[in-house]
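Q: How do we represent a protein-ligand complex in a form that can be generated token by token?
A: Start from the inputs.
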Amino acid sequence: MTDRLRLGVLVSGRGSNLQAILDRCAEGRLSAQVAVVISNIAEAYALERARKAGVPAVALEPRDFPDREAHDRAIVEALQSHGAELIVLAGYLRILTASIFEAYANRIINIHPSLVPAFCGKNMHGLRVHQAVLDYGAKVSGLTVHFVEPEVDTGPIILQHVVPVSEDDTPESLEQRILSFEHEKYAEAIQLIAEGRVTVEGRRTRILPEESGK
Ligand code: GAR
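Then emit the structure tokens for the protein with glycinamide ribonucleotide bound:
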């Protein structure tokens, strides 16, 4: 496949979404390739997954930089030096600063494990999200893939997928059920972007029909 969209994937943890993307790229099911994986945590298992796949894995720990902006500038340099065109946040647990938004305006996406705008925002990530869904007694949850804006979890939504909550769910069981859909749906969203089929009008995105993209 030629002209594959070059992804810069930012991670902080186990990296199962990264793995799903790597697998689909390797199988030729995605018109994309992972150009670099960057983590703010050197021990993140996601970096190991990148190395195993032969993809550059970079650890940039905040404590090695004077402030958030300097840390994010180093991230931008690493992304640009590997030719990343789209930033894919896959369980990246830091808020981005202006330097990243300036360099990658409208080219940053995130996946969140709930139906935004429910159960999202600052400090809502991973199991906390699913615990909050169960505590509230919601009957459905799901996932959201969206463009990233400076406010947490607020950018235009690319796609969402509804997953039922069962009466016996624990945060862990709900997480697992949603995660398996995340792996499919994040790849689907990346493919739509790679095909040039996602347009943004204000807060709303429009998915163009097949073969109408770039
Ligand atoms: C995923 O469930 C992702 O949706 C969530 O973190 C998990 C990362 O898992 N992201 C957030 O909660 C962002 N607010 P992974 O490392 O196995 O891909």
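Residues 13-17, 90-91, 111-113, 125-126, 129, 179, 182 surround glycinamide ribonucleotide (CB under 6 Å). The CA atoms of residues 128 and 174 lie 11 Å apart.
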